[in-house]
Amino acid sequence: MRQYDPDLTPPWKRQRPAPEVPAEPDLVVEEVTTGFCGAVIRCEKTAQGPTVTLEDRFGKHRVFPMEPRGFLLEGRVVTLVRPRAAAPGAPRRTASGSIAVPGARARVARAGRIYVEGRHDAELVERVWGDDLRIEGVVVEYLEGVDDLPAIVDGFAPGPDARLGVLVDHLVTGSKESRIAAQVTDEHVLVLGHPYIDIWEAVKPSSLNIPAWPTVPHGQDWKKGVCRALGWPENTGAAWQRILSSVHSYKDLQPELLGRVEELIDFVTAPLG
């Protein structure tokens, strides 16, 4: 006897199954019905079925059922599923790649500090190295620029038990930043930098699904020029949240930044001797 398909919808009109994507923390998706866009905060099992909580760039939380074809990921319809539990015995790693210490409590803050230029720099360092810094008791502060760096260093009064690490943007030969950094000669201070005009560029273009960071003509506001070139709204705060949400681990950052931050952490936390 011939078997008939009970679904009378023509094959060309049937919806194809959407790919399943684990709802890992910080994954940025858009809910298809409401258009709410945010990063995954957590997944929960409820009597009505699994749900996912998203947080938008303003810090607002919304809870959605994890229904088939319920979300957009980079413009593509997907089905979110609960992430698989880590394999027994497999050590969890922090975003920086370090082995996580289960149940570790934050150490009392050291006298030493790491200074970065601005808020975006501090937020990026926290996103990738935050777990490590809390265990080591290292506080990151930002300067709002490096023009007054020598005076800030003098005011900090660095010493053997209060080392100071400084991360500078665009620290290349001949730059204004390099001339300012050269004025800091205290042996208990380490000034390092990366070659990028702004910390935005330290995020790999592939992590943002762009071919490359655009070249902005000299004299233009660099961040607004980047937004224009990429077709983004000229809202640098929103652009930064978009960039930051694409960073999930050290793998999303350029090696020129990774090495410098690791070196600064090692310098500030080195034992006395």
List keywords for this structure.
single chain; 273 residues; alpha/beta; 7-stranded mixed beta sheet; 4-stranded parallel beta sheet; 6 helices
Descriptive notes:
Pfam families: DUF3097_C (PF11296), DUF3097_N (PF22845). Residues 1-25 are annotated as: Disordered. Residues 20-83, 113-269 form the DUF3097 domain. This is DUF3097 domain-containing protein. This protein is of the alpha/beta class and 273 residues long. Helices cover 24% and strands 21% of the residues. It has 6 helices and 11 strands. The strands form 2 sheets. The chain has a 7-stranded mixed β-sheet, with no helix packed on it. The chain has a 4-stranded parallel β-sheet with strand order 9-8-10-11, with helices on one face. Strand 2 and strand 3 form a beta hairpin. It is globular, with a radius of gyration of 23 Å. The relative contact order is 0.12. The mean pLDDT is 86.
SS-derived structural category: alpha/beta
Distance between the termini: 87 Å
**What kind of assembly state do the chains in view correspond to?**
single chain
Tertiary shape = globular
